[in-house]
Write a structure and sequence with these properties.
This protein is of the alpha+beta class. The chain has 2 domains: 65 residues; 99 residues, Gamma-adaptin ear (GAE) domain (Immunoglobulin-like, Sandwich), CATH 2.60.40.1230. Helices cover 35% and strands 32% of the residues. It has 2 helices and 9 strands, in the order H-H-E-E-E-E-E-E-E-E-E. Strands 3, 4, 6, 8 and 9 form a 5-stranded antiparallel sheet that branches. The radius of gyration is 41 Å and the shape is rod-shaped.
């Protein structure tokens, strides 16, 4: 136990030894160590909380993007075009088939065949009104005359709008199948 002695009666070595064996000294050391450990733990917890908040914000951002993509896909039309042989009244006929694989109706559909509007191209026989809408899962076949002057490959460009309000397009080069 620490006793109060006159400093003059103690040698330096005795004073250090007396201090090291005293309870208040070790209580102070333990308190300082506990304070340091507490400060370090608080720093780590704050840093981890900040990282966790950053990750949570990124997860929310990703979920919002995913939801926006899902809503976009529900409102989007997806038109494709291909040549297909179909049986008609006079045998096999080559058809340009426009197919909507999207979830929404394609509106204001425009088709260019080798750079010309479809109704102006020499190998397209289109006796119906020009298509302007193609519903989800629907297709629109168009008769194509294949002969010496008009034969594949054909360049086709289809443009349309849909519920997303975006101008969409599909371009391909069609070859005979």
């Amino acid at each position: 136990m620490f006793t109060f002695r006159l400093l003059t009666s103690m040698t330096g070595q005795e004073a250090v030894l007396d201090l090291l064996t005293s309870v208040p000294f070790w209580s102070l050391m333990v308190s300082i160590f506990a304070l340091g450990a507490s400060l370090w733990a608080n720093y780590r917890a704050t840093r981890l909380k900040s990282e966790s908040n950053d990750l949570q914000a990124r997860l929310v951002e990703l979920e919002e993007e995913r939801e926006a993509d899902r809503l976009h896909m529900q409102q989007a039309a997806d038109l494709t075009a291909h040549l297909e042989k179909r049986l008609g009244k006079n045998g096999l006929r080559t058809m340009l088939v426009l197919r909507n694989q999207g979830n929404a109706t394609a509106e204001d559909v425009r088709v260019e065949f080798d750079g010309d509007r479809i109704d102006e191209h020499g190998s397209v026989h289109y006796d119906k009104p020009i298509i302007s809408k193609i519903g989800s899962g629907a297709e629109s076949p168009i008769l194509v005359s294949v002969h010496a002057q008009h034969h594949p490959p054909f360049e086709v460009k289809v443009t349309w709008t849909d519920a997303t309000g975006k101008n969409n397009s599909f371009e391909t080069i069609l070859t005979a199948s």
